[in-house]
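To fix ideas, we quote verbatim one protein's residues and fold tokens.
>
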Amino acid sequence: MKALRGAIGAVVVAGLLLTLALALYALGKSRPQDLPWTPVDLSQPVGMFTARKLAALGDDFPACREALDKAGVRYTALPPLSEGDQCGYADAVRFRPGGARQIGFAPRDLGVACPVAAALSMWEWESVQPAAQRHFGQRVREIEHFGSYNCRRMYNREGASWSEHASADAVDIAAFRLADGTRITLVGDWDDKGSKGRFLRDVREGACGVFATVLSPDYNAAHRDHFHFDQADRGTMGWRACR
């Protein structure tokens, strides 16, 4: 009898493991970005592990460029830059116009670390354009920014930690211009109770799925006129901020 119970238990465990394997296989086919071991694919919907995979591209510039290439993002790789011990980058790219579904940035010379470029692309495709269609029935034509690389400490305070801007791992987004010319700004429209305010909150929430840090006017007065997005390496615990 004991042997029979052991055999039945083994069959049950084997059945459960098979069911789990089939479930993971099905999930991997339909939602690969929900699995931690699948490679990042910018053409796939944002999943549970997308943001961590994007941030991890900071350690693998060739893999990051391959992801951009596969998704049809047009860019120019920038030469490495070093300014002292704390500032500079080795993996920055600059967007070029004409890519698949690619939006315009103003000023046009936006150069960012490759993982930021990958996240901006996904954010446009998965969040910005759908939100614009939902709230305004048209596309966003251009995103205005305050730049990325800046060799400085956080809040420009002496003795503070170095900003993610010091390695081009951050970008500040200030406004959006729709296809009909309508301009939506953080400083002017964050408190709007209509479509503009709802749009800005939707795109902030969308950014939280692809960036390690998202800070908005809800965070503090220093961000009253822009979103701060970055791909800071938060370590194995995957600490994130979305405020």
Observations:
- The chain has a mean pLDDT of 88.
